[in-house]
Input
Amino acid sequence: MKLLSYFRGEAFQRGVHPPSNKVTAGRAIRRLPFPPKVIVPLSQHIGKPPRVVVRVGEEVVRGQPVARSDDWLSVPHHAPVTGVVEAIELRPSARGPWTQSIVIRAHAGASQEDLWGQPRDMAAASGDDILQAVWDAGMVGLGGAAFPTHAKLTVPKQAKVHTLVVNGCECEPYLTCDHRVMIEESDYLVRGIRYAMRVTGAVRAIVGIEDNKPDARAALRDAIVRAGTVAEGEIHAELVPTKYPQGSEKMLIMALFGVEVPSGALPLSMGMVVNNVGTLAALGRLLPAGQGLTERVVTVTGPGVARPGDYRVALGTPLKFVLDHAGAVDAMAARQVILGGPMMGQAIASLDVPITKGVSGVLVFRREDMTEREARHTYPCIKCGECVESCPMGLNPSTLGMLAAKREYDLMGSDYHLGDCFECGCCTYVCPSNIPLVQQFRVAKQILREKAVA
Amino acid sequence: MTASIEIRSAPHVSGPRTVEKIMRHVVWSLLPICAFYVFQYGLSALASIVVVTAACLLTERFFVRTGTQAGSLSDFSAVITGLLLALTLPPGFPLWMGAVAGITAIALGKALFGGIGFNVFNPALVGRAFVQAAFPTAIATYTPSLLAGRFGEFIPSSLAWPFMLPADTAAWLQSKHLDALAGATPLAKWKFDGVLAGAGELLTSLSGHMAVGPSPLLILACGAYLAARRYLDWRIPAAILGSAGVTAWILFGLDPLRYPNPFFMLFSGGLVLGAVYMATDMATSPVTPKGMWVYGALIGLLTVVIRYYSGLPEGVMYAILIANAASPLIEKITQPTPFGKSAMTGMGKRRKGATYPLNPGYISREDAGAVTPKKRFLRNKPKKS
Output
């Protein structure tokens, strides 16, 4: 396999192949019951949190906007359940600090249908109309970064976009939510791609799918054929080699087009916009109905989960509720709960944290899964060069790590290109000395950012 | 129950490689070579390997226990040092001198710098350099391999009392009906007597009573195993052998009478062992791929220069030590180019085999001009075609 990719030309240089553990790939998405209480944090995305537009004690229906903002880098939130606003108060968040959240108690026995939306005639909608609709739907990138989708789809005046790249790589181990969405919601996805093409003015859309998901590509191709000739341009589904971090947008562009996006520049500078499949599938589902984003598909998996699978979860569902339903094997044995994938995901401290728009997976490791890692001794760097051979950005993590240990943060930034690090974690993954490289780089980047502000 | 949850920073999984695993694999791959060495020289070689390795381990244990050095005994790195050091010493090297070499290797070559990962020079070669300076006669005294009865008796020099000089092996050799010249290495024979050894003898180390180390073919095979499992970087041996071969070939082409053929240069002496096992020591070689080529090329070149022009028959050791010293500098000037920062980024250079053209063909040229990024400053101006 490796030899084959050598002859085909590598997708991008370096990278790693962690065991994929995608056990839930073959199982259909199931709906999780609605929890008795949902917690909607105001800050679920990159950018300013919106203002609350409901009062405590007010009845809300599912899909009704509960928070709204006119700020460009901000999106509205919609009530995920029909119920009554119980409180607007500080609640724990995944990032750690408590944040302002709207707590809604669900009406027992409510049908929980989306009652709010006003259907739109999408065939007649112009690009600007769609952009406004995307904003109103409260869409953010569902791949994990949670960047407001309308801002990402907006093309500045001086730039021109010819290609919409759709990211269906899902290179993180364990996660399968995008995979299932591509199979089960391929028609929505094609529809969402068409909307995004209309907004950006792209004349072709290319869906990049890692070659461990041939069924997703087949489903998508069928959907493209079903859609027939579309006015917006061509849509292709393409397989790219399976490799972590293929899902990084610059790596995907390298795999598809063979060009490097210049350091510090956006794909926009190459005339491209990259979006996640989950985001576009949600657009295809929500926009015609005029609804807001109230639920998402989350992969609940890991060795500590008895019934792993992809679940359609109402936003704001507390993790405890999710894990109880997925059968977190003996909650006492749970040692680590991670939001996102194992390579870049975030370990959380409390099970009261709700599912937010950017959560693609919940991963539970048991105590026994951690013992082998904990038993590992941390050696000094033996300069084996594995990290240099695995860094997709072509940095030198070995030297960066030694500089970080000496707190030479400025030198790291100026001479060793620390700013190009996107914290994929490949260096830490491969390090035989068990040095927490990417963790040190995060600290260093944060310190440099603070210095730049000061 | 929430109390039992732990927070860690991503990534939450780790790869299968550990320092112990790397070192263990290197030790395993060295075992066939040691076995061959024992087969060549019998009891004395075995005793030498055991004593030198034990000296390294004891010294390592002392420094780890006293806390002057990082790492632990279980990481096997001291075993590698011991085995390699024993393989570079003559089989009849007095055992007490071997122990001195082992102690020096770890104490001066490794512990002094702070232990595993911090050493600037290859510890085994530091030990060998020390004994080469301290015991010049003993280290130049080789005995022929494959002698009859080698498994029943020691080479007499092995058993010299500590701090006593060994007995002369010439008398012992005469009792075996061999002349003193038989105890010279092929390199020494060429350097001082102008006699070239044959290709087959050099490659297999099996024919005749040559005073040679383990077969280069065996070493290359063991190295290939390590390289295939990526426990050593193939670039370094490739660069060393390539550069030594090319330098020797050029000199041979200039004056075939004075200089030996490149084949002799590559497969005599310790060049293969040095290239595969010594120079590839991770801590003392550059981490950057480009740097590895420079480093290897430097070793190959220096080896040939020392062998041809110095008073010593063998130059691999000093070549590697000099390159070790140069390795931080080499690393500094061969840093990898980050993604998106190469001079050709955005200039239309594309990876071969990419699926799609950058711009769709149905976009007009003016439109395409609007999206290609501005030209960047070029460090290396591309040639005009």
